[in-house]
Design goal:
The structure is a single chain. By secondary structure, the chain is of the alpha/beta class. The protein contains twelve helices and twelve strands. It has two domains: 138 residues, Nucleotidyltransferase, domain 5; 196 residues, 3-Layer(aba) Sandwich (Rossmann fold). A hairpin with a 4-residue loop joins β1 and β2. The longest helix is centred in the first third of the chain and has 18 residues. It starts with 7 loop residues before the first strand and ends with a strand.
Length: 376
Protein backbone atom coordinates (compact mmCIF):
# COMPACT_ATOMS: atom_id res chain seq x y z
CA UNK A 1 0.00 0.00 0.00
CA UNK A 2 1.16 3.49 -0.76
CA UNK A 3 0.68 6.54 1.38
CA UNK A 4 -0.71 9.87 0.26
CA UNK A 5 -2.73 12.89 1.18
CA UNK A 6 -6.06 12.12 -0.53
CA UNK A 7 -9.40 12.33 1.25
CA UNK A 8 -10.76 9.83 3.73
CA UNK A 9 -14.01 8.50 2.29
CA UNK A 10 -17.01 6.33 3.08
CA UNK A 11 -18.19 4.02 0.31
CA UNK A 12 -21.76 2.73 0.63
CA UNK A 13 -22.80 -0.04 -1.74
CA UNK A 14 -25.91 -2.00 -2.61
CA UNK A 15 -26.76 -4.55 -5.25
CA UNK A 16 -29.90 -6.44 -6.06
CA UNK A 17 -31.52 -8.96 -8.37
CA UNK A 18 -35.22 -9.28 -9.12
CA UNK A 19 -35.51 -13.05 -9.25
CA UNK A 20 -32.07 -14.05 -7.89
CA UNK A 21 -30.93 -14.68 -10.53
CA UNK A 22 -32.85 -12.07 -12.50
CA UNK A 23 -32.52 -8.52 -13.78
CA UNK A 24 -29.77 -7.11 -11.58
CA UNK A 25 -28.04 -3.83 -10.85
CA UNK A 26 -25.85 -2.07 -8.34
CA UNK A 27 -25.45 1.33 -6.75
CA UNK A 28 -22.45 2.88 -5.03
CA UNK A 29 -21.94 6.28 -3.47
CA UNK A 30 -18.73 7.84 -2.13
CA UNK A 31 -19.00 10.35 0.72
CA UNK A 32 -16.39 12.60 2.28
CA UNK A 33 -15.83 10.99 5.68
CA UNK A 34 -15.75 14.36 7.44
CA UNK A 35 -19.02 15.95 6.32
CA UNK A 36 -20.88 13.34 4.21
CA UNK A 37 -20.55 15.42 1.06
CA UNK A 38 -21.32 13.21 -1.95
CA UNK A 39 -18.13 12.89 -4.00
CA UNK A 40 -19.22 10.27 -6.53
CA UNK A 41 -22.15 8.07 -7.51
CA UNK A 42 -22.16 4.99 -9.70
CA UNK A 43 -24.91 2.62 -10.80
CA UNK A 44 -25.42 0.17 -13.61
CA UNK A 45 -27.82 -2.49 -14.82
CA UNK A 46 -25.77 -5.69 -15.26
CA UNK A 47 -28.27 -8.00 -16.93
CA UNK A 48 -29.28 -11.30 -15.34
CA UNK A 49 -27.26 -12.04 -12.21
CA UNK A 50 -27.60 -12.95 -8.53
CA UNK A 51 -27.81 -10.58 -5.58
CA UNK A 52 -24.29 -11.49 -4.49
CA UNK A 53 -22.78 -10.82 -7.91
CA UNK A 54 -24.55 -7.45 -7.99
CA UNK A 55 -23.22 -6.61 -4.51
CA UNK A 56 -19.64 -7.41 -5.55
CA UNK A 57 -20.01 -5.43 -8.78
CA UNK A 58 -21.20 -2.48 -6.70
CA UNK A 59 -18.23 -2.81 -4.35
CA UNK A 60 -15.81 -2.83 -7.29
CA UNK A 61 -17.49 0.27 -8.73
CA UNK A 62 -17.37 2.06 -5.38
CA UNK A 63 -13.70 1.25 -4.79
CA UNK A 64 -12.87 2.30 -8.34
CA UNK A 65 -14.59 5.65 -7.81
CA UNK A 66 -12.74 6.15 -4.52
CA UNK A 67 -9.42 5.41 -6.23
CA UNK A 68 -10.19 7.90 -8.99
CA UNK A 69 -10.81 10.53 -6.30
CA UNK A 70 -7.38 9.84 -4.81
CA UNK A 71 -8.79 8.51 -1.53
CA UNK A 72 -6.34 6.96 0.91
CA UNK A 73 -8.54 5.62 3.73
CA UNK A 74 -11.82 3.94 2.78
CA UNK A 75 -14.64 2.80 5.07
CA UNK A 76 -16.92 0.46 3.12
CA UNK A 77 -20.48 0.08 4.41
CA UNK A 78 -22.82 -2.53 2.95
CA UNK A 79 -25.96 -4.42 3.90
CA UNK A 80 -24.54 -7.66 2.42
CA UNK A 81 -23.14 -9.64 5.31
CA UNK A 82 -21.70 -12.19 2.88
CA UNK A 83 -19.54 -9.63 1.05
CA UNK A 84 -18.50 -7.86 4.26
CA UNK A 85 -17.42 -11.10 5.91
CA UNK A 86 -15.64 -12.41 2.81
CA UNK A 87 -13.78 -9.16 2.17
CA UNK A 88 -12.82 -8.95 5.85
CA UNK A 89 -11.23 -12.40 5.53
CA UNK A 90 -13.53 -14.10 8.03
CA UNK A 91 -15.43 -16.19 5.46
CA UNK A 92 -13.99 -18.06 2.49
CA UNK A 93 -15.06 -17.21 -1.03
CA UNK A 94 -16.24 -20.52 -2.48
CA UNK A 95 -18.73 -19.76 -5.26
CA UNK A 96 -17.03 -19.71 -8.68
CA UNK A 97 -18.96 -16.59 -9.75
CA UNK A 98 -17.69 -14.71 -6.72
CA UNK A 99 -14.01 -15.69 -6.77
CA UNK A 100 -12.86 -13.36 -9.60
CA UNK A 101 -15.01 -10.52 -8.28
CA UNK A 102 -13.59 -10.84 -4.77
CA UNK A 103 -10.10 -10.98 -6.25
CA UNK A 104 -10.68 -7.77 -8.22
CA UNK A 105 -12.12 -6.00 -5.17
CA UNK A 106 -9.07 -7.12 -3.17
CA UNK A 107 -6.72 -5.73 -5.81
CA UNK A 108 -8.45 -2.37 -5.66
CA UNK A 109 -8.44 -2.38 -1.86
CA UNK A 110 -4.69 -3.01 -1.85
CA UNK A 111 -4.18 0.40 -3.46
CA UNK A 112 -5.42 2.30 -0.40
CA UNK A 113 -3.66 2.95 2.90
CA UNK A 114 -6.54 1.32 4.75
CA UNK A 115 -9.91 -0.25 3.97
CA UNK A 116 -12.50 -1.35 6.53
CA UNK A 117 -15.74 -3.26 5.91
CA UNK A 118 -18.83 -2.77 8.05
CA UNK A 119 -22.26 -4.35 7.77
CA UNK A 120 -25.17 -1.88 8.07
CA UNK A 121 -28.94 -2.45 8.05
CA UNK A 122 -30.68 -1.85 4.75
CA UNK A 123 -32.51 1.13 6.26
CA UNK A 124 -29.13 2.84 6.73
CA UNK A 125 -28.13 2.19 3.13
CA UNK A 126 -30.90 4.13 1.40
CA UNK A 127 -28.73 6.19 -0.98
CA UNK A 128 -26.99 3.20 -2.54
CA UNK A 129 -30.26 1.23 -2.48
CA UNK A 130 -31.97 3.96 -4.50
CA UNK A 131 -29.18 3.94 -7.08
CA UNK A 132 -29.35 0.13 -7.36
CA UNK A 133 -33.12 0.21 -7.82
CA UNK A 134 -32.80 2.85 -10.54
CA UNK A 135 -30.36 0.57 -12.33
CA UNK A 136 -32.74 -2.39 -12.01
CA UNK A 137 -35.59 -0.21 -13.25
CA UNK A 138 -33.59 0.21 -16.43
CA UNK A 139 -32.83 3.89 -15.92
CA UNK A 140 -29.84 5.64 -17.42
CA UNK A 141 -26.62 4.76 -15.57
CA UNK A 142 -25.21 7.36 -13.27
CA UNK A 143 -21.52 8.11 -13.66
CA UNK A 144 -21.11 11.23 -11.60
CA UNK A 145 -17.57 11.46 -10.24
CA UNK A 146 -16.70 14.83 -8.82
CA UNK A 147 -14.31 16.14 -6.25
CA UNK A 148 -15.22 18.84 -3.76
CA UNK A 149 -14.94 21.73 -3.75
CA UNK A 150 -15.30 22.45 -7.48
CA UNK A 151 -15.90 25.87 -8.97
CA UNK A 152 -19.08 25.84 -11.01
CA UNK A 153 -18.66 26.69 -14.67
CA UNK A 154 -21.14 29.14 -16.16
CA UNK A 155 -24.05 27.38 -17.87
CA UNK A 156 -23.97 27.59 -21.67
CA UNK A 157 -26.91 29.17 -23.47
CA UNK A 158 -29.82 26.79 -24.04
CA UNK A 159 -29.35 27.04 -27.78
CA UNK A 160 -25.79 25.72 -27.78
CA UNK A 161 -25.00 22.02 -28.32
CA UNK A 162 -23.21 21.91 -24.95
CA UNK A 163 -26.49 22.52 -23.17
CA UNK A 164 -27.95 19.30 -24.55
CA UNK A 165 -27.35 15.77 -23.33
CA UNK A 166 -27.73 12.55 -25.26
CA UNK A 167 -28.73 9.22 -23.67
CA UNK A 168 -26.38 7.22 -25.83
CA UNK A 169 -26.42 5.60 -29.25
CA UNK A 170 -30.05 6.61 -29.99
CA UNK A 171 -28.96 10.19 -30.67
CA UNK A 172 -31.99 11.70 -28.94
CA UNK A 173 -31.12 15.08 -27.43
CA UNK A 174 -32.17 16.77 -24.22
CA UNK A 175 -33.41 15.40 -20.93
CA UNK A 176 -36.53 13.26 -21.36
CA UNK A 177 -39.81 13.32 -19.52
CA UNK A 178 -39.84 9.85 -17.99
CA UNK A 179 -43.28 8.29 -17.56
CA UNK A 180 -43.51 5.50 -14.99
CA UNK A 181 -46.58 3.59 -16.13
CA UNK A 182 -48.36 1.71 -13.34
CA UNK A 183 -51.40 -0.43 -14.04
CA UNK A 184 -54.05 -0.47 -11.30
CA UNK A 185 -54.45 -3.39 -8.91
CA UNK A 186 -56.86 -6.31 -8.98
CA UNK A 187 -60.67 -5.91 -9.16
CA UNK A 188 -63.43 -8.51 -9.21
CA UNK A 189 -63.80 -8.06 -12.96
CA UNK A 190 -60.10 -8.68 -13.53
CA UNK A 191 -60.30 -11.86 -11.44
CA UNK A 192 -63.09 -13.08 -13.73
CA UNK A 193 -61.26 -11.82 -16.84
CA UNK A 194 -64.12 -9.59 -17.97
CA UNK A 195 -63.94 -6.47 -20.12
CA UNK A 196 -63.55 -3.63 -17.65
CA UNK A 197 -63.67 -0.21 -19.24
CA UNK A 198 -65.77 2.68 -17.98
CA UNK A 199 -67.37 0.58 -15.25
CA UNK A 200 -66.02 1.44 -11.85
CA UNK A 201 -65.19 -1.72 -9.85
CA UNK A 202 -63.16 -1.11 -6.71
CA UNK A 203 -59.92 -2.85 -5.82
CA UNK A 204 -60.16 -6.18 -4.03
CA UNK A 205 -58.14 -6.80 -0.87
CA UNK A 206 -55.50 -8.34 -3.10
CA UNK A 207 -55.61 -5.26 -5.30
CA UNK A 208 -55.16 -2.97 -2.31
CA UNK A 209 -52.12 -5.02 -1.29
CA UNK A 210 -50.72 -4.74 -4.81
CA UNK A 211 -51.19 -0.98 -4.68
CA UNK A 212 -49.33 -0.77 -1.37
CA UNK A 213 -46.46 -2.91 -2.68
CA UNK A 214 -46.11 -0.75 -5.78
CA UNK A 215 -46.26 2.38 -3.63
CA UNK A 216 -43.46 1.12 -1.39
CA UNK A 217 -41.26 0.44 -4.40
CA UNK A 218 -41.90 3.86 -5.88
CA UNK A 219 -41.31 5.60 -2.55
CA UNK A 220 -37.96 3.82 -2.21
CA UNK A 221 -37.08 4.94 -5.70
CA UNK A 222 -38.07 8.58 -5.10
CA UNK A 223 -37.39 11.49 -7.46
CA UNK A 224 -40.95 11.54 -8.81
CA UNK A 225 -42.32 14.98 -9.57
CA UNK A 226 -46.03 14.20 -9.92
CA UNK A 227 -48.65 11.46 -9.72
CA UNK A 228 -51.25 11.55 -12.51
CA UNK A 229 -54.19 9.14 -12.57
CA UNK A 230 -57.09 7.99 -14.66
CA UNK A 231 -60.38 9.25 -13.21
CA UNK A 232 -61.69 5.70 -12.64
CA UNK A 233 -61.87 4.43 -9.08
CA UNK A 234 -59.55 1.44 -9.38
CA UNK A 235 -56.80 3.64 -10.78
CA UNK A 236 -57.48 6.39 -8.25
CA UNK A 237 -57.17 3.92 -5.35
CA UNK A 238 -53.84 2.67 -6.72
CA UNK A 239 -52.63 6.22 -7.30
CA UNK A 240 -53.65 7.38 -3.83
CA UNK A 241 -51.50 4.66 -2.26
CA UNK A 242 -48.52 5.81 -4.30
CA UNK A 243 -49.22 9.49 -3.68
CA UNK A 244 -49.43 8.91 0.07
CA UNK A 245 -46.11 7.03 0.08
CA UNK A 246 -44.45 9.72 -2.03
CA UNK A 247 -46.03 12.68 -0.21
CA UNK A 248 -47.57 13.93 -3.46
CA UNK A 249 -51.14 14.85 -4.43
CA UNK A 250 -52.89 12.86 -7.15
CA UNK A 251 -53.80 14.77 -10.32
CA UNK A 252 -56.48 13.35 -12.61
CA UNK A 253 -56.24 13.38 -16.39
CA UNK A 254 -59.38 12.31 -18.24
CA UNK A 255 -57.31 11.11 -21.17
CA UNK A 256 -55.96 8.24 -19.08
CA UNK A 257 -59.32 6.53 -18.67
CA UNK A 258 -59.76 3.01 -20.03
CA UNK A 259 -61.37 2.15 -23.37
CA UNK A 260 -65.15 2.38 -23.45
CA UNK A 261 -66.18 -1.19 -24.26
CA UNK A 262 -69.84 -0.21 -24.65
CA UNK A 263 -72.16 -3.22 -24.64
CA UNK A 264 -69.24 -5.56 -24.02
CA UNK A 265 -68.57 -4.02 -20.60
CA UNK A 266 -68.53 -6.77 -17.97
CA UNK A 267 -68.56 -9.60 -20.52
CA UNK A 268 -65.91 -12.26 -20.87
CA UNK A 269 -64.05 -12.72 -24.15
CA UNK A 270 -66.27 -15.70 -25.00
CA UNK A 271 -69.46 -13.84 -24.08
CA UNK A 272 -68.55 -10.80 -26.21
CA UNK A 273 -67.62 -13.07 -29.11
CA UNK A 274 -70.97 -14.86 -28.85
CA UNK A 275 -72.83 -11.52 -28.57
CA UNK A 276 -71.28 -10.02 -31.76
CA UNK A 277 -69.27 -12.77 -33.45
CA UNK A 278 -68.32 -11.01 -36.70
CA UNK A 279 -67.65 -7.60 -35.14
CA UNK A 280 -65.66 -9.08 -32.25
CA UNK A 281 -63.49 -11.10 -34.63
CA UNK A 282 -62.72 -8.07 -36.80
CA UNK A 283 -62.25 -5.79 -33.74
CA UNK A 284 -59.37 -8.01 -32.60
CA UNK A 285 -57.24 -6.78 -35.53
CA UNK A 286 -58.83 -3.50 -36.65
CA UNK A 287 -58.17 -0.54 -34.35
CA UNK A 288 -60.72 1.62 -36.12
CA UNK A 289 -63.69 -0.54 -35.07
CA UNK A 290 -65.81 0.22 -32.00
CA UNK A 291 -67.57 -2.22 -29.71
CA UNK A 292 -71.35 -1.56 -29.86
CA UNK A 293 -71.85 1.80 -28.16
CA UNK A 294 -68.15 1.99 -27.31
CA UNK A 295 -64.82 3.46 -28.38
CA UNK A 296 -62.22 2.34 -30.90
CA UNK A 297 -58.55 1.92 -30.10
CA UNK A 298 -57.80 4.64 -32.65
CA UNK A 299 -59.93 7.03 -30.57
CA UNK A 300 -58.06 5.95 -27.44
CA UNK A 301 -54.77 6.68 -29.19
CA UNK A 302 -55.94 10.19 -30.05
CA UNK A 303 -56.61 11.12 -26.45
CA UNK A 304 -53.48 9.33 -25.16
CA UNK A 305 -51.38 11.36 -27.58
CA UNK A 306 -52.89 14.41 -25.89
CA UNK A 307 -51.86 13.04 -22.49
CA UNK A 308 -48.29 12.57 -23.71
CA UNK A 309 -48.19 16.10 -25.09
CA UNK A 310 -49.62 17.58 -21.89
CA UNK A 311 -47.17 15.78 -19.62
CA UNK A 312 -44.06 16.47 -21.68
CA UNK A 313 -45.06 20.15 -21.73
CA UNK A 314 -45.92 20.38 -18.01
CA UNK A 315 -43.09 18.19 -16.64
CA UNK A 316 -40.09 18.65 -18.98
CA UNK A 317 -37.15 16.49 -17.96
CA UNK A 318 -38.94 15.11 -14.89
CA UNK A 319 -40.20 11.72 -13.69
CA UNK A 320 -44.00 11.38 -13.65
CA UNK A 321 -45.96 8.45 -12.26
CA UNK A 322 -48.93 7.56 -14.45
CA UNK A 323 -51.58 5.25 -12.96
CA UNK A 324 -53.89 3.94 -15.63
CA UNK A 325 -55.22 0.88 -17.45
CA UNK A 326 -54.12 -1.68 -20.01
CA UNK A 327 -55.01 0.18 -23.21
CA UNK A 328 -53.67 3.66 -22.33
CA UNK A 329 -50.42 2.16 -20.99
CA UNK A 330 -49.97 -0.04 -24.07
CA UNK A 331 -50.69 2.99 -26.25
CA UNK A 332 -48.00 5.09 -24.53
CA UNK A 333 -45.53 2.24 -25.03
CA UNK A 334 -46.64 1.99 -28.66
CA UNK A 335 -46.04 5.72 -29.14
CA UNK A 336 -42.59 5.49 -27.54
CA UNK A 337 -41.61 2.50 -29.70
CA UNK A 338 -43.18 3.99 -32.83
CA UNK A 339 -44.63 0.59 -33.80
CA UNK A 340 -47.88 -0.56 -35.33
CA UNK A 341 -51.11 -1.63 -33.63
CA UNK A 342 -50.07 -5.28 -33.26
CA UNK A 343 -48.47 -4.30 -29.95
CA UNK A 344 -51.94 -3.66 -28.51
CA UNK A 345 -52.94 -7.26 -29.15
CA UNK A 346 -49.67 -9.05 -28.38
CA UNK A 347 -48.28 -7.27 -25.31
CA UNK A 348 -49.38 -8.57 -21.92
CA UNK A 349 -49.49 -6.27 -18.90
CA UNK A 350 -50.07 -7.72 -15.46
CA UNK A 351 -52.09 -6.04 -12.74
CA UNK A 352 -50.01 -3.50 -10.79
CA UNK A 353 -47.14 -3.89 -13.27
CA UNK A 354 -44.65 -1.09 -13.92
CA UNK A 355 -43.39 0.01 -17.33
CA UNK A 356 -41.24 3.03 -18.23
CA UNK A 357 -41.34 5.17 -21.37
CA UNK A 358 -39.30 8.29 -22.07
CA UNK A 359 -40.14 11.16 -24.42
CA UNK A 360 -37.38 13.59 -25.43
CA UNK A 361 -37.81 17.27 -26.29
CA UNK A 362 -36.45 16.69 -29.81
CA UNK A 363 -39.18 14.12 -30.53
CA UNK A 364 -37.13 11.02 -29.71
CA UNK A 365 -38.47 8.35 -27.39
CA UNK A 366 -37.43 5.09 -25.75
CA UNK A 367 -38.84 2.30 -23.60
CA UNK A 368 -36.77 1.23 -20.62
CA UNK A 369 -39.01 -1.24 -18.79
CA UNK A 370 -42.11 -3.32 -19.57
CA UNK A 371 -44.45 -5.27 -17.26
CA UNK A 372 -42.18 -5.43 -14.21
CA UNK A 373 -43.93 -7.05 -11.23
CA UNK A 374 -40.91 -7.69 -9.02
CA UNK A 375 -42.47 -5.60 -6.24
CA UNK A 376 -45.44 -7.99 -5.89
Amino acid sequence: MTSGSGPNVVVEVDGGSRGNPGPAGYGAVVFDAADRTVLAERNESIGVATNNVAEYRGLIAGLTAAAELGARAVAVRMDSKLVVEQMSGRWKVKHPDMIPLARRAGELAAGFDSVTYTWIPRADNSHADRLANEAMDGLAPTDLARTAPVAAAPAPPASTPAAKSAPGWTGALGKPTRLLLLRHGQTELSVERRYSGRGNPQLTEVGLGQARSAAARLAARGRIAAVVSSPLGRARQTAEAAGSALGLPVHVHEGLTETDFGQWEGLTFAEASAHDPDLHRRWLSDTSLRPPGGESFDEVRGRVEGVRDDLTRDYPGQNVLIVSHVTPIKTLLQLALDVGPSLLYRLHLDLASLSIAEFYPDGGASVRLVNDTSHL
